[in-house]
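Task card 7
Instruction: Convert sequence to structure tokens.
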Amino acid sequence: MVTAAIKTFPCPRCGKPSQWTDNPFRPFCSERCKMIDLGAWANEEYRVPTQDAQSNDTPEYDQD
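Output:
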């Protein structure tokens, strides 16, 4: 008889073990962690790093 092992992984919010199968809050362990993460997105706490555009004060080439 073959039994399927329940695979767990850490919740991205709190780090507690969470399971993928039969988990309505996946990848989070609970509704609480899901809502905290959603609030962080809404408050713009997560940012994608970008390079700042060059300012007009710095010339791209020498002007003679």
